[in-house]
Amino acid sequence: MVTIKVNGRELQADENQTILEAARAAGIRIPTLCYHKELTPYGACRVCLVEIVAGGRPGLQAACLYKCAPGLEVSTDTQRVERARRVVLELLLARSPESEKVRALAAEYGVTGTRFNLAPENCILCGLCVRACAEISRRNAIGFSGRGPRRTVGTPFRRLAATCIGCGACVYVCPTNTIEIEERD
Amino acid sequence: MTEPLNQQYRLNLMLCAGTACVSMKSFAIKARLEEELRRHGLDGEVLVVLTGCNGFCAVGPVMTVMPDGIFYHTLTPHVIPKLVEEHFLKGRPVEKLMFTPPAEKAAVPRLADIGFFANQTLVALRNRGMIDPEKIDEYIGRDGYRALAKALTEMTPESIVETIKASGLRGRGGGGFPTGLKWELCRKAAGDVKYLVCNADEGDPGAYMDRSIVEADPHSVLEGMLIGARAIGAAHGFVYIRAEYPLARKRLQIAIDQAREYGLLGEGILGSDLDFDVSIKQGAGAFVCGEETSLIASIEGRPPEPRQRPPFPAQSGIRGKPTNINNVETWATVAPIIERGAGWFAAMGTAKSKGTKVFSLVGKIQNTGLIEVLMGTPLRKIIFDIGGGIPDGKAFKAVQTGGPSGGCLPASLLDLPVDYESLTEAGSIMGSGGMIVMDEDTCMVDVAKYFVEFTNDESCGKCSACRDGSGALLEILRRICAGEGRLEDLDTLAELCEVIKDASMCGLGQTLPNPVLTTLRYFRDEYEAHIRDRKCPGKVCKPLIRYFIDPEICRGCTVCARDCPSKAITGERKKAHVIDQARCVKCGVCLEACGVFGISAVKIE
């Protein structure tokens, strides 16, 4: 066990725990979009950013990935953190304007509209579906393809994935309801 | 440049065979040289040696005649017979093929006296143009592998690490992390299997430092890695090199094969207990692979995506084993430090940036090429004394250092010393050594847009801040360049840049806002001109410029009308022509066509 400080409060944490896990266990809320407790954390959405104040790599770090260490001091609500979350949510809102989950979280940070003009995709590329398919269903039927602005989630070569068993795990974890399941004969 | 090589020959013709000179027919020139030398019976006296990049790429193909050091440039196969007859047979160097600085009349015969070379200090490039990179004996002939012998016989791993630490060497790939400290972390990391990596995934547009080092002197990289292997306790190394660098890859493979043959790679190197071998891993040209954790993912066969650090590669890298990654130039700098001592290296440069740095000097610059200068050399000296200034009498506007994610520095900062701290303070970065010079005809908003286009395209797309942040930056910049900007865009850009820097997972995102931030800082008036006056001061952004013909100057020669691809120019012969703005596609062909009488009737506003 190690002792870390979150917003000035001392917490006991396991060294293998992430900041997010330790904070949540202590009832401190850190927002997330690409995190699920049953899946390997990925750090893609950048909503869980916290500021490392001492005892670690200085600057903003993803709480879902950053491991607790002795002497680590973290702030979850500095101006710098708030600004980063606000702008990141504004970007995600521009990308996924219809998503209830993104809209609700953005509204919490006072973001109701967006200054950014990105082609709406709905999918925020959080990768929960990809991880659920690989780690829970163990089918690896979907993955990322392309890079940068052309990055998408899909089946191999955009064909019906031979390994898909239609379990629906990807649909279940998707925060933006991008994936639909359809019945086939 | 005084040591004669291959002393059984009277003359050694050191002909550059770097990628740039090869593209200008070095190989054909070599064949012609040998043919002519044979014809005159000189083939036993004069040897043609293909070297790696000489650095003075602007005037390639280039050749240095050793031991005299006479420098010939812009060679073509058809000047060779005359050159061989005059110089190598009759002993009369050919002045016409020597370098004449643009502002002067007299040719400068010797390489060492040419301003481009005289102001440089070579450490990483110590053997450039002096050896055949495909012959290990030539590297050994220039004291190659002596530092390795010293490291194996006279030094302990700890003392090697201490020497590198004391030298003040910092990572030449961009980050500037102290190399000795990096080695120490990996050395002390738990585990008996450790890896070394040479990062040769140079992806910056216009930068070719690493390619040239590998092409010109591959053994310098291998020797550095061998010394690193001894210091860190690694038994295997990877050179991660782009598939787009075929010549570098070929020469590196030859170097590895020759080193194995000489027992310099393999088991029990030089009779010591050091076992070390190197393999080449080809990259498919993704910019993000320059980032350490993405590079590791790529070596492991996964798509290149960064991951959270810590754990750092020194703790958990390739296959979870401690891994030490250094850039090509860093590895190439190791052997001279071991051989000549930390004090020698630390005496060069500034208080915190020691030694020398290689830059590829490109853009609107007279002497395009590869240079190595002392850390702390002012930009002015690099651009004007070495680079020869801006061509065509144009004015200097900005220089971008550090590749696509570096900053653009204005003329007021020309006296800035080039070191890690000064560049960072000015809003730019050292990066791996790209240096792009821009003249008065450059639009700084367009430049910022260009670089964000590049980084947006090269973003791996994993994290939202980098992927969507760069996309949003690009949309705003495109709008400003199209004359549709709003004044509040400038605050939005600034805020977005700060957040992208703060919130991105890896160095790609953390540095990509630099071109935007620095142009906002130093060239804000250009942004305002685009937005407020709907004008592009650099006359680059097409929606904001208009081509027209000055009727006072136009002689009605019809050349522009004939060349115009959109048939926008009309007019009778010998009478002033007119451009139809509705049809004009602003390609600039008319402007180029009209230059024939010395003064152009075509103008831009």
Give a verbal description of the structure.
The complex is a heterodimer of chains A (185) and B (605). Among the domains of chain A are: 2-76, Ubiquitin-like (UB roll); 128-173, Alpha-Beta Plaits (2-Layer Sandwich). Chain A is an alpha+beta fold and 185 residues long. Helices cover 25% and strands 16% of the residues of chain A. Chain B has 605 residues and is an alpha/beta fold. Chain B has 24 helices and 17 strands. In chain B, the strands form five sheets. A five-stranded mixed beta sheet of chain B has the order 10-9-13-11-12.
Unreliable sequence segments of chain A: none
User: In what order do the strands lie side by side in the largest sheet of chain A?
Assistant: 2-1-5-3-4
- In CATH, the architecture of the domain at 2-76 in chain A is Roll
Mean pLDDT of chain A: 95
The profile of the biggest β sheet of chain A is: 5 strands, mixed
Order of helices and strands of chain A: EEHEEEHHHEEH
Principal-axis shape of chain B = globular
Distance between the termini of chain B: 51 Å
Query: What is the CATH C level class of the domain at 2-76 in chain A, in words?
Result: Alpha Beta
Number of helices of chain B: 24
Radius of gyration of chain A: 18 Å
The total count of strands of chain B amounts to 17
For the largest sheet of chain B, list the strands in their spatial order.
10-9-13-11-12
Q: Largest interface by residue count?
A: A-B, 38 and 33 residues
| Structural class estimated from helices and strands of chain B | alpha/beta
Proportion of residues in β-strands of chain B: 5-15%
**CATH topology of the largest domain in chain B, what is it called?**
Rossmann fold
Helix content of chain A: 25-40%
Radius of gyration of chain B: 26 Å
* Structural class by helix and strand composition of chain A: alpha+beta
What's the β-strand tally of chain A?
A: 7
